[in-house]
Amino acid sequence: MSKVLIILTGGTICMVRNEETGALHPASLTLADAITPELRSAHIVAEVLSFSPLIDSSDVNPDNWVRMAQAVYDHYSDYDGFVILHGTDTMSYSGSALSFMLRNLGKPVVFTGSQLPMGMMRSDAKENLLTSIEIAAAKDEEGEALVPEVTIYFEDRLFRANRTTKRNAEHFSAFNSYNYPALAKAGVHITYQPHLIHYSDPAKPLQLCDKTDTHVAILKLFPGITREVVHSVLSADGLRGVVLETYGAGNAPSVKWLYEELQESVQKGLIIVNKTQCNTGSVEMGMYETSINLLKAGVLSGYDITTEALLTKMMCLLGEYGEDTETIKTLLQTPLCGELTLE
Q1: Residue 164 among the catalytic residues
Q2: φ, ψ for residue 165, nearest 5 deg
Q3: Low-confidence ranges of the chain (pLDDT < 50)
Q4: Could you tell me if 161 and 269 lie in one domain?
Q5: Distance linking the first and last C-alpha atoms of the chain
Q6: Which of 208, 224, 246 is the last residue of a domain?
């Protein structure tokens, strides 16, 4: 029998509708009861660990990420895999954060949720949950986990969590991984893609990195942005890192004042990373003249990383390495768990 721990943090999937009042309420016991027959036939034991109170994903913060990662770390030796139930709005942020917090991960940690609550007509909750549990329990012929990384499963696709973005608030296919293929597809059978899966060094033990620094910001460029707006963001008290969302392949207005603001901030120790506003594609600084000033100012390339992954990676590295800016800069441009592609 395989053992899987279901960690309930909140979200639509953790709710059922009261038949009398119509109100939604937490469904931890109902959830376990609903899936017991299927799990028994699959020789899987699933146990439930519930946050109290449950958290709406719009309220999730880095302290909650630490709590999720700590739950996996504390129960790591007792289970073959983990399923984290989470609201969809910030699932990509949480999944990305845990991929950086759980170093040398050798077991599956699968995030999932639903667009409709359990028990409602056409709800996607039960199928998402059951398939996620099956993936979390899946092993190869040698007894090793098939997908030993942090992932998101939704509708019929399994994605690397730190490659995902929520793309739809209505359709069941709520997430996509624009710059990296799906790790598995679920139909009558689950078809895995082992050559796409990230494997940590099995000789290294699991390491929990539970420090974060939230002194970061996202600065999205737009036509007509003023120097006052840029300066107000870059000069915020205590700010240490900025995700600079640029156009196309990493381009920005060629106005002199923008270069001056960025260069001055970098010289003062601010870490600025260039991230394209496009869902698909990569930053290629220096490809066009409109990105040369960014290079000259000391802005780093984010390559094809998502905003969610870049922001959470920055928080984790700042928390872990403190004032060691050069190490942080190096690691921000280094793939740690498959979050970016350098070529």
Answers
A1: no
A2: -145, 140
A3: none
A4: no
A5: 42
A6: 208
